[in-house]
Design a protein that fits this description.
Distance between the termini: 22 Å
Low-confidence stretches: none
Helix content: under 10%
Structural class: mainly beta
Strand order of the largest sheet: 1-6-3-4
Shape: globular
Mean pLDDT: 89
Order of helices and strands: EEEEEE
Radius of gyration: 13 Å
Length: 74
């Protein structure tokens, strides 16, 4: 799940560990964290946060291509 304009994620209420990638304004990964339940993580330079299942293979410096959604995709 991608959160726009986010720098912080919490895992309160979750039962499993998740991977979190923090993205800059150019969709580059600036930090990747494996976050267990009941934790808070943040990256002050981040502009977006991507939550993924644990074990996802993303590394700092990777660049993600944004998908086109909404009316522009039609």
């Amino acid at each position: 799940m991608l959160f726009e304009r986010a720098r912080t994620v919490h895992t309160f209420g979750m039962l499993e560990t998740i991977d979190v990638a923090f993205l800059d304004a150019h969709h580059r990964v600036i930090r990747v964290s494996s976050v267990p339940p009941r934790r808070i993580v943040c990256a002050l330079r981040a502009r977006r946060v991507l939550e993924m299942p644990a074990g996802t293979d993303l590394r700092c410096g990777d660049r993600l291509t944004p998908a086109i959604e909404g009316p522009a995709a039609q």
